[in-house]
Specification:
heterodimer, A: mainly alpha, 3 strands, B: alpha/beta, Rossmann fold, 3-stranded parallel sheet, two-stranded antiparallel sheet, 11 helices, 7 strands
Amino acid sequence: MIEIDQYYGLSSPIHRWDPRLKIVSIFVLIFSIMLLYNLILVVITMCFAIMLVFLSKIPISFILTRLKWVFIFVLPFLIILPFTFLGGGIEIAHFLGITLYYRGIEYVIYALMIMIKALTAVMLIFPMIGTSRIDITIKALEGLHIPNKLIQMFAFTYRYIFVLSDEFTNMERSLKSRGYKNRASLFSITSISKAIAMLLVKSYERADRVFYAMRSKGYTGTVTTLHEFTLRPQDWLNTIIVIGFAIFIHIAAISSTMEVL
Amino acid sequence: MLHLNGILPGKRTHESGKGSGYVEIFGTTIDPKKIHEMPKKIGIVFQNPDDMLFMPMLGDDIAFGPINLGMDKEEVDLRVKESLAMVGLAGYEQRVPHHMSGGEKKRAALATVLSMGPDILALDEPTANLDPKSRRELIDILKGLKDQGKTLIIITHDINAIPELTDRVIVLNRTVIADGNTREIFSDTDMLIKAGLEIPVIMQFFEMLQFVGYPCDKLPLSLEGAVNNLTQTIENGEGHIHLHYHKHTHSKITATLNKFHYHK
């Protein structure tokens, strides 16, 4: 299975950045691009994000294969948003008594903006999470005083997703070894759905056992781990650059709307 | 097994109370409200190590118990190192559980409990699902713990491991069927066969040897015992063992073989 932190071993400014500040800064940057409504500034932020990705030395192909799914997900916006059946635009087609209208260039820009924002946000996840080991990231979240329950959920998801995927692979192999094939038949669908249901039952029972194991080890509701992070001037400099950019781009956005007024 | 540390509460909290049972450890009855204090006294090792290793990194898993017991950082670090060394996994702090082998996971699960320094260890099928080498390593670790004075409670079907590890054996099948020292239990073949168990192969073999004239009044339970027994017999016979065959030998051996078979 391919893991998001498989390139944690590389050496780059992003890798050397303190994980706590890295998470906060890039998170601010993600929010900042989400709140922008100006195509030029969105594109500039995307360039900044691409620069961060290049700096992190994570192979572009690794990121592109993952961005592909996001792209497929947001592509419908570009197709759907500029058109309407409700009237108020240029008529472009008639069929079955329905008229399709084109709503104008501003809607195309709007759709493009949604697409770029989504792609950039997902792209930024890679330098944020993919440049340190996942357990270090979890400890960083703990260091940031994120609610403990959330951290526990995150940690358990990460730990058990592999166990579950192994279990599912086993089940799939056992199905296949008895002649099962993925077909569009009712039998195929019922078999696979029963297998998935079994997986749910198994994970439910496992959750019980894990909880017992935790209680046997003195669990009272919070999980704490030992971690040590030291901050260097370079960490703060990186933070200032990224958060500074996020703020700057919003100042630019505000001043441009003022000019329009 | 979870009754042992109060996670599954007994029906009554002390001897005079109502209900069907209670558990007493070191003279105090387990109070379900004080479960978080139990790990100091008793550590439970589950059958499936994946249930016990729930943190993203092994070092955190082993530190989990000591941190919950409120120890300070140096103490926790020391205990993590110590308990990993005890199970032969020194230097595994940074390892990720899903990249470890089954035998390593079993030993790691044991280490997560050892780090809390319990006097009693309860293990559910410690040797199940292990290859012979890992099984041997685990048995040696458990022997070492026993020699250090820890009390081990082991639930197992691994008959051949029992003589090496135990002083007292309790046979359970819904209820207590037999309770005694290891030798007493293993001399009651009928009871063991009825419970779906068997006696160690070495013991079966020496019982057969008796029919060809091997002098042996105390059947050895393990390989070590067998070697001692053979040496002793050869010394007594001044360098020789005399085995012989007579007309009843064959029928006796057949009868004994039958004794070890399961009856439907």
